[in-house]
Amino acid sequence: MLQLINSADTRGNMLVLVYILHLFLHTCMCVDLAYPVQEEKSPGTYIGDIAADSQLLNSVSSQDHNLITFNQLSQKETSQLFNISKSGKLFTSQKLDAESLCSYSTECSRTIKVAVKQAETFIKILKIKVTIEDVNDHQPEFPVKQIKLIFDESHGKGTAKSIPNAVDEDVGIMNSKISYRLKKHDNEPFRLSVSKKVDGTSKLRISLDEKLDRESKDSYFLQLVAEDGGFPSQHGILNIEISVIDVNDNPPIFSKDIYNVSIKNTHHRASPVTVLSATDLDSGDNGRIIYHFSSKTSEIVKNSFQLNNVTGEIFFLNVFPVTQTRKYKLFVEATDRGTPPLSSIVLLLVNVINQQNRAPEIDVNFVSALKKNTAAISERIKVGSFIAYVSVIDNDVGLNGEVTCDLKSDKFQLLKISSKEYKVLMKNTVDRETESNYNISIICRDKGSPALKTERKFSIQVMDVNDVQPKFTKDTFKFLTYENEKSNFPVGFINATDLDLGNGGQLTYFIIDRNNMFPFQITDYGFISTIRSLDRERRDIYKFRVLVKDNGTPSLNSTANVIVEVMDENDNAPYFTFPSVNPFSLDVHYHPQSKNDITVLRASDRDSRENAFLKYEMLDRKNHQLFTVNPYTGVLSFARKVYQND
């Protein structure tokens, strides 16, 4: 009959619970939204709706929802992994593998920075945390399929032998959590004990429940089952052969539980970073120790450090990077050469102190980019509006890595978000017609000695808004034209100006209150001409108003007065008003003592000015001796004394 011995570690469960609580609190304080996504999903997998979940649309009217856009800010760790649509939908850009992204981590996540704006106006930057959920696609594996343990028959109850633990490459908390159980017969005097090593892996030991009798039985065959906590779970099996003889029973012991070493980044490669030391109470091969990196040590660290297997010396293989991680975590295992080999693991922390001082690096992300180094803003932009996100990189330590940034402008200001994050905001309103382009310079200085600075220059272009009303060059335009001319006869030009660009500066002219009898017309460009021939005698002055409007949205307009005076042509003959009939007879009684005036002739002319100036003249020559007419007054009178025979 087989007996199953379970060894779930309740302390490990509590650690998982504490970690989850810590993760929850961390998420609440540092990010705006959090989403999960399973690893190994195909590219384009939908993760979540940032627009809906952030509730940003709740404060905007439904007809303005399409003005809200979302843009992912460029980041080295996330730009290639995720894709965000303009409407705020979050998708994967490639297949995600939690094991390669977060090797040996209990949680795998990435944080995305998303800029949100409404039309040309920035709203905020959202920090989105995406947790890549591990799929239980790896089973626990032992380093070997079978091991052989040797017990001395003189060993009493409680004597224990170490056995290798299993490794699960999954990164999920439950998927990588391994529990062990020992399969054996009821009468076999062995049990399994499990404890935790410093690197979080399990330390496994097979111990005796009672003293062995080699003469009764000299060998046993057990199975150790390692099962992960995934659903469904996966398991691996280690076959254990136990021989009853005298064997290696002391593991190597390190001189320290944790090694913590600090070195300068100028450390010479030929000099060891530190020397690890472990001892083994056994003799011979059982007490000879070899050192090697534990499976918990990342490949990046293994490629950066070299371990002398015999002496325990640690060397750095490359020049210490100034702008990368300056803290290294190494798990080193000391194993003796006994059969079976016993081992111990120690944690080595290497802290690299950067003594170099490099100038800060400045990265600028525009909310609305016109081109690579130019931002675009509307001239209607409000004070306090967000223009650009500025991040500063300075990985120096101490004062060398403390940075302050400054922007000098009467229109724009730099507001600090965190120690190395800023945003460029509107300080005052702008007017494109006054100034259309601004050259901006951000200067960042560290606090090193000497202080190093970096200057980042870029331009901000003001985009035109139809805010200037067209303006006529005169309030009143006066023109002279002639009567009796054909249609389309030119009268004159009127002119207006508009400082706006594009459609806002394109002008069209109209005559206000024009009816079908109105004799003038105007082109879109302000040219006034006649529709038909004019008659000054009917109307000599025309007064009307002209409207000019631009093609912007909304359209702006202005009006001006136009006066057209019709010039006279001599196109009307004079006519007599007295006498009013032709011929006309007049009886005159002459008396020598009377005046010579007979009557006053009256005439008129519908023309004006010199064309209406009349002169009277007698056409009958034979009557000139008897009668005369005043050429200017029209007075008809006797020219001489009248005789009876006249």
Question: What topology does this entry show?
Answer:
Elements: E1 2-6, H1 10-30, E2 33-38, E3 46-49, H2 50-53, E4 68-72, E5 82-84, E6 89-92, H3 98-101, E7 109-118, E8 121-133, E9 146-151, E10 160-163, E11 178-185, E12 190-196, E13 202-208, E14 219-228, E15 235-244, E16 253-254, E17 258-264, E18 274-275, E19 278-279, E20 289-293, H4 299-304, E21 305-307, E22 313-316, E23 327-336, E24 343-353, E25 361-366, E26 369-371, E27 374-378, E28 386-393, E29 403-407, E30 412-418, E31 421-426, E32 437-446, E33 453-463, E34 471-472, E35 476-482, E36 490-493, E37 496-497, E38 507-511, E39 520-522, E40 527-530, E41 541-550, E42 557-567, E43 575-578, E44 597-600, E45 602-604, E46 627-629, E47 635-638
Parallel strand pairs: 2-8, 9-15, 17-24, 27-33, 35-42
Antiparallel strand pairs: 1-11, 3-6, 4-7, 5-6, 7-8, 10-13, 11-14, 12-13, 14-15, 16-19, 18-22, 20-23, 21-22, 23-24, 25-28, 26-27, 28-31, 29-32, 30-31, 32-33, 34-37, 36-40, 38-41, 39-40, 41-42, 43-45, 44-47, 46-47
